[in-house]
Design brief:
This protein has one domain. The protein contains three helices and no strands.
């Protein structure tokens, strides 16, 4: 189980690093846009991301 979690963490870090590496200007603009969102909007984005991630995991298994 720890190996699976470490693998998932590693994959997440690789995916998270793709945009800043490949297109730093786009990443910077997206980050600046995220800074202008309200707390409620950020929570909605986070909740939506978690739900989509859970659905992907459910269909994958």
């Amino acid at each position: 189980m720890p190996e699976l979690l470490l693998g998932a963490l590693g994959l997440m870090l690789v995916v998270e690093g793709l945009l800043p590496f490949l297109a730093p200007g786009v990443w910077r603009r997206a980050f600046q846009a995220a800074l202008s969102l309200t707390d409620g909007q950020l929570r909605f984005v986070g909740l939506t991301s978690m739900i989509v991630g859970l659905l992907v995991l459910m269909f994958w298994h």
